Amino acid sequence: xxxxxxxxxxEQLTDALTKKQTSDKKLGEILVSSGYTTEETIxxxxxxxxxxxxxxxxxxxxxxNVLRLVDASxxxxxxxxxxxxxxxxxxxxxxxxxxxxxxxxxxDFSIITxxxxxxxxxxxxxxxxxxxxxxxxxxxxxxxxxxxxERKAKTEAQQVVDLKEEDNxxxxxxxxxxxxxxxxxxxxxxxxxxxxxxxxxxxxxYRIDGALYEKGSYDNQLLSAIxxxxxxxxxxxxxxKRKPQDGRMTLDVDHVEYDIRVSMLPTVYGEKCVMRxxxxxxxxxxxxxxxxxxHELELFDEMLSHPNGxxxxxxxxxxxxxxxxxxxxSELNKEDVNIITVEDPVEANIVGINQVHVNAKAExxxxxxxxxxxxxxxxxxxIGEIRDEETxxxxxxxxxxxxxxxxxxxxxxxxxxxxxxxxxxxxxYLLADSLVGVIAQRLVRRLCPECKRAKTPSxxxxxxxxxxxxxxxxxxxxxxxxxxSQTGFRGRIGIYEILKVTPRMKTMITNEASAxxxxxxxxxxxxxxxxxxxxxxxxxxxxxxxxxxGVSAEE
Length: 555
Prior knowledge:
The chain has helices at residues 10-20, 27-33, 39-50, 64-67, 72-78, 103-113, 124-152, 156-165, 173-187, 223-233, 294-304, 321-332, 366-373, 389-400, 414-423, 428-434, 459-464, 503-510, 515-524, 530-539, 545-554; strands spanning 80-85, 92-97, 116-121, 190-197, 201-208, 211-219, 245-253, 256-267, 270-279, 309-314, 339-343, 354-357, 380-383, 404-409, 435-447, 453-455, 475-477, 489-500. It contains 21 helices and 18 strands. α7 (124-152) runs antiparallel to α9, α14 crosses α16 (428-434) and α15 packs antiparallel against α19. It has a 7-stranded mixed beta sheet, with helices on both faces. Strands 6-5-4-9-8-7 form a 6-stranded antiparallel beta sheet, with helices on one face. The chain is 40% helix and 23% strand.
């Protein structure tokens, strides 16, 4: 069908069939993972060829009596979900399927329900999210009950032995529960999972688009087993419960590989675990996806074209600095360029770039690694973070001697960055000579396009947006729908303040001008501040005034 529609070529099909011989994946999954097509294209092709309706499960509501027709384990096995009775015949049930030609699935569903199946088509990504949304909590509760029943019959030592032995067996209730927590987080686009020990329960929260949402609560008897399982998978010491520990693990969710950093911290009621999820491919994306407008893109490209100098990206933790740096490096990553990075830790592996992981125990600090890197004939050096005077000094020296250095710094604005480096002990004339530009950034949540609601700004909002009397504008506010999990927001976008070092700026830096004076001069030369950037996004209907408040408060 895909060949007939011209979606794939004979060569791509042959390649996928060759890969299929050594893989247990379906042919469609191999075509998608090889980048030859997408899940949506396959679904649309099936829909056109078979004449079945294609549905979006993200915004659909399913009645409880329909959800109770078949057990969730059967639905997950066949990747199907009932969505409602046929409007003309109560003996027919509409069932969303990833593979509508799976006759065994249709037969099993008919035998269990005694209803006639009318298949409709959806993608596997939407299917997994829908199964989590409608059955995830009940499945997790079932697993928790099963574990509590087993726990009564076993000692704690025996439970730990079981967790180790069942490292490759997914039937253990706790293994299933931990996998379920991580999989649901990944499908809901969470960046972090918090597993917290409270007085008489275990609370599970996900950080989605920068905000925390409670997603589950279990009996506190489960805490020790959940923590032990995570420690085993992430390579920590199970017996150590009094000290903080760090670990790392990799998990495949819906054919996407996630790199997960794990942190354990002893608290009053037990250990708290935070897992940070990062898709290996998500950190390297097209610059246009990050939120730069056309003018900002041109400035960024101009900075990256410099053969030597320092480019700094600044902002608080979680403001997207790493994504901006990785995106820039991916673009600069050519065969004739030697790029070396020093990071703590390496957040994503990029083919063709030499990445060094800082290791304090082996005395491989940022400064020590940088000194060695300079003897490795680099063209571009990326420093994960400038933390001290020594690292800053080597970075400036490297940039003056013909290398392009990109790095991050924790400062609030682009102009503050210059004073911070001078306070670190960098001579102002050296800084003026080496600095190419500074990008300060923040992330704000995007309004969900499905449910955002137009409104007329209030008097307070008009003042914040600097609207003139009589100026008529429409802004939008969050509402909440199934597609955005009732939050009103879906995804985030970058807000940027780009300070380009012009001849006038160089003179001001050499004369150690104040951050305020540098900022005024930069605005006169056309720089947009973070507040200006977020105001523009509000007026364009991309974000809400509530997101603007946090950014404006800093200034």
